[in-house]
Amino acid sequence: MHKVTLARNEISPLLDRLILQLEAEGRLTQRAHFRRIQRRIEVAHNEWDLTPPIIDLSSASAMGFKFSSTADALVARILDKTKVLVDALTGESLIRH
Fold first, then answer.
1. Do the domain assignments include residue 97?
2. Tell me: the pLDDT tens digits for 55-66?
């Protein structure tokens, strides 16, 4: 399967759920961060276009974001899916910062 399609099919639906959860919790800065990532995945044309949003996904906790248990579970699932994508792209594992 094409890597960009994989990212859209596997990660975007989870980002949708996370964005809605963050909005419901009133965490609009975090919501905006993940919405930007989602938009960049949506407009990606090739694997290189996926690199910046993948890096941003892996660095969410390094940015100081604190998540509710529900949002944290969604972030963990997104990172699991992202790890599979990174492994497919590079043969190396994603490290959560």
1. no
2. 898 887 778 888
